[in-house]
Specification:
CATH class of the largest domain in chain B: Mainly Alpha
CATH topology of chain A: Methanol Dehydrogenase, Chain A
CATH architecture of the largest domain in chain B: Orthogonal Bundle
Oligomer: heterodimer
CATH class of chain A: Mainly Beta
Mean pLDDT of chain B: 86
Strand content of chain B: 5-15%
Shape of chain B: globular
Shape of chain A: globular
Radius of gyration of chain B: 20 Å
Largest sheet of chain B: 5 strands, antiparallel
Low-confidence stretches of chain B: 1-17
Strand order of the largest sheet of chain B: 6-5-4-3-7
Number of domains of chain A: 1
Largest sheet of chain A: 5 strands, mixed
Largest interface: A-B, 53 and 32 residues
CATH superfamily of chain A: Quinoprotein alcohol dehydrogenase-like superfamily
Strand order of the largest sheet of chain A: 1-32-33-34-35
CATH architecture of chain A: 8 Propeller
Mean pLDDT of chain A: 94
CATH topology of the largest domain in chain B: Cytochrome Bc1 Complex, Chain D, domain 2
Number of domains of chain B: 3
CATH superfamily of the largest domain in chain B: Cytochrome c-like domain
Number of helices of chain B: 8
Low-confidence stretches of chain A: 1-26
Strand content of chain A: 35-45%
Order of helices and strands of chain B: HHHHHEEHHEEEEEH
């Protein structure tokens, strides 16, 4: 990077990049203080969702409404092994850290796209990945390390300059079905991860590791043990031991309240609640945790006694708005069950909840936010048609929140599933799901990108998609929302109106998570589709 | 969470006390019947009640197709079955092939003449000859059963084909009639070849390809309940229908 110092500098972002370059060697030096103030470095993208508030918003505005029609491919990078790319790259001081399926990390030069190093863990051929494809959604950086969770259940710290392994710990026993796909979240000296595996009947947990050593700092189970509050919501049997409650997506963090928000997935078995009568705390919930010890400060459950596999792990956006005449610190999530929720993030109080996609299972939410279930919506031997579908109205893919527009942008899946109930027998490391579903797809399904008033969930505009998508969204200070489609479209919408301003066909389903960065005074937008990462610029 | 699970295993699990075939049938009923029909008589997917299967001549290839799917034909991967369950499934599918099939009524050679007389080849290709507005029929005897073919002749709009083609994608109607009126007033009518959020590709009745930016269209009408193929109900005698179905059922050397 220092060789670039003689080149022309233009714009604030470039100056910042060069100043950082002067004090930092090649390879990230990212103290916690930089992560805390990530928003002040819009040229970088240092956490999974761009900041602890999970806005997936870029303050860069070089690419904007007026000129986005001139966006062109700057470079592309093809992954080393075929697989689905569901990652959000990070960019720190001229280096991109991108994960590749199943658990590879590659550092790329952000100017040219040329790899600087790559690391692949030794994944055993009999690795157990039940519940999702073997993907990876991104890495975390802290100080001079890069952290990656793996499909064989490990958390690995790499040297950010070389990709050399600093430490490698087992988070969950893969033989029992534990695996990791999420981007870890780096806090002050700690790295927080969750696990996948509810489809094999794991007992979910959230772990924090000491960043320097890999030593376990704390573990908080998402299913209470006998004697703990919430245990009574599992009936009298042993259902809690195999109760699921995975923690497979990156949480959000409020340093002022000192609360870490981590959401949980479905109870196991997915579609058969016979062995788990009750609300099944803390599945399909958000937990507010003390990041120093992992203690649960409050919880809010979205879908009690879930029988549709509606994990609530979706990204939680932290923002502030006036509600009832006063400024509130809020947490919003577009849940897989079809409802958009707004909570007070200091207390967990339910403030608003409205459908943002077609749903046929509830007559709304009660004043506490608990769903008012319709009759006859449970999976059955003959099949029960319910909206949203088995993969939800939303899922792992990221929403975006723009502080400019105060809108929450979400891709919604309009699709039903015929849900079946089946038998479930627990055997470690095998499917423990108790049924399944058949999609109502093709021309009978559709999707949309919806802009919701973040404080109320009221829809301001929508942009229709041909099919239910898996697209994450990025909003920018240029007044744009970037998104994609299953058919390979990548496009920019006007953040105020939803009007399409630019689109291109990139030849593969858009499953990557868009982000933006700048280097040498030039803004880039990155998106992965098919087996390739594409980076666009003016 | 569950992702890309296209099928169900109701009541499958682990009972080993009954015979493999009964267990295999149970698995088949959960996983396969929607497309392959009860007893494997076919539906939107190929019939399996024949001694030899076009894409799965032996057990190893059958096992591979079940495990890996056929992405270009909409056949999903069947995951989350144990080795035992896979063995039971293969055994059951093979047993269907050995069971007696109802004979196909009609005279195939008369059906062939009828096919020529009706001008079916204007829209369908058999062994390289014909038009491409409708499904290719060279191997249709392998990939669709007589009941499906009869319905296609009598009520072509009752169920548009699915799963023949790699595009548009799994679950989408194939040969979907579409009318596009462009902003300059020009009208295009044909079948949808593919579509994305911003564009649609259409083959018109003369065989010409149109690629349209949706932004350039004043109207796009998709006719999910109609077909460009005319119905032959009432136009052919019952015996003629039998003959035509017999002809189609033998295409590709399937019977």
């Amino acid at each position: 990077m220092s060789t670039r110092l003689g080149t022309r500098a233009s714009g604030f972002a470039t100056c910042t990049v060069l100043l950082v370059a002067l004090i930092a060697p090649v390879g990230a030096q990212v103290p916690y203080e930089r992560l805390l103030k990530a928003e002040s470095e819009p040229q970088n993208w240092m956490t999974y969702a761009g900041s602890y508030k999970s806005h997936r918003y870029s303050a860069l505005d070089q690419i904007n409404r007026k000129n986005v029609s001139g966006l062109k491919l700057a470079w592309a990078y093809q992954i080393q092994r075929a697989g689905i790319i569901e990652t959000s790259p990070l960019v720190v001081d001229g280096v991109m850290y991108m994960s590749e399926p199943p658990s590879t990390v590659t550092a790329l030069d952000v100017r040219s796209g040329r790899p600087l190093w790559s690391y692949s863990p030794n994944i055993p051929p009999d690795v157990i990945v039940i519940g999702s494809p073997p993907v990876n959604r991104g890495v975390a950086v802290l100080d001079d390390m890069v952290f990656v969770g793996t499909v064989h259940g490990h958390l690995i710290a790499l040297d950010s300059k070389s990709g050399t392994v600093r430490w490698d710990v087992t988070v969950g026993d893969n033989k029992q079905g534990y695996y990791l796909t999420l981007a870890p979240l780096a806090l002050d000296g700690k790295v927080v991860v969750g696990v996948s595996g509810a489809e094999t009947g794991i007992r979910g947990f959230i772990d924090a590791y000491e960043a320097k050593t890999g030593k376990l700092a704390w573990r908080t189970y998402t299913i209470p043990a006998p004697g703990e509050p919430g245990f009574e919501t599992w009936g009298k049997g042993n259902g809690w031991q195999t109760g699921g409650g995975s923690t497979w997506l990156t949480g959000s963090f409020d340093p002022d309240l000192n609360l870490l928000y981590w959401a949980t997935g479905n109870p196991a078995p997915d579609w058969n609640a016979d062995n788990r009568p009750g609300d099944n705390l803390y599945t399909d919930a958000v937990l507010a945790l003390d990041p120093s010890g992992g203690k649960i400060k409050w919880h809010f459950q979205f879908t009690p006694e879930d029988v549709h596999d509606w994990d609530s792990n979706e990204t939680m956006v932290l923002f502030e708005a006036q509600i009832g005449g006063r400024e509130r610190k809020l947490l919003a999530q577009a849940n897989r069950n079809g409802f958009y929720y707004v909570l007070d993030r200091a207390t967990g109080e339910f403030l608003a909840g409205v459908p943002y996609a077609k749903q046929t299972w509830a007559d709304g939410l009660d004043p506490k936010g608990r769903p008012i279930r319709k009759k006859g919506i449970a999976p059955s031997l003959d099949g029960t048609l319910v909206f949203p579908n088995i993969q939800g109205a939303s899922n792992w893919f990221s929403p975006s929140y723009s502080p400019q527009t105060k809108l929450f942008y979400q891709a919604a899946r309009e699709m039903g599933t015929i849900y079946y109930k089946g038998a479930a027998v627990y055997k470690p490391g095998t499917a423990f799901t108790g049924g399944g579903g058949r999609y109502v797809n093709g021309d009978d399904a559709s999707g949309a990108i919806r802009a919701l008033d973040a404080a109320t969930g009221k829809m301001k505009w929508e942009f229709p998609l041909l099919s239910p998508g898996w697209t994450s969204l990025l909003s920018t200070a240029g007044g744009l929302v970037f998104g994609g489609s299953e058919e390979g479209n990548f496009f920019a919408l006007d953040a105020e109106t939803g009007k399409p301003l630019w689109d291109t066909q990139i030849g593969g389903a858009v499953r990557g998570i868009p982000m933006s960065y700048a280097v040498d005074g030039k803004q880039y937008v990155a998106i992965a589709a098919g087996f390739t990462l594409f980076v666009f610029a003016l | 969470m569950v992702f890309l699970v296209a099928a169900v295993i109701p009541a499958a699990a682990s009972a080993q006390s009954v015979t493999d075939l009964a267990d295999g049938k149970k698995l088949f009923s959960g996983l396969c019947v929607t497309c392959h029909g009860f007893e494997g008589t076919g539906g939107a997917g190929p019939p399996l009640n024949r001694p030899r299967l076009l894409s799965a001549p032996d057990d190893a290839s059958l096992r591979n197709i079940i495990a890996e799917g056929i992405p270009s034909r909409g056949m999903p991967r069947v995951r989350r079955v144990t080795d035992d369950e896979m063995r039971q499934l293969v055994a059951y599918v093979r047993s269907i092939g050995k069971s007696a099939r109802a004979p196909v009524r009609g005279d195939a050679s008369r059906g062939g003449q009828l096919y020529g007389k009706l001008g079916c080849s204007n829209c369908h290709i058999i062994n390289g000859v014909g038009g491409s507005l409708g499904p290719e029929l060279s191997n249709i005897g392998w990939i669709r059963g007589p009941d499906y073919l009869r319905q296609a002749v009598l009520e072509p709009a009752a169920r548009l084909p699915q799963g023949n083609l790699a595009v548009p994608a799994r679950g989408y109607n194939e040969y979907l009639p579409v009318t596009v009126v462009l902003r300059d007033g020009a009208e295009v009518r044909g079948i949808r070849l593919n579509e994305d959020v911003f564009t649609i590709q259409i083959r018109d009745t003369t065989g010409k390809l149109h690629s349209v930016r949706k932004n350039d269209a004043a109207l796009i009408r998709k006719e999910t309940t109609s077909s460009v193929m005319p119905s032959y109900a009432g136009r052919l005698a019952a015996a003629e229908i039998d003959d035509l179905v017999a002809y189609l059922s033998r295409l590709g050397g399937a019977l």
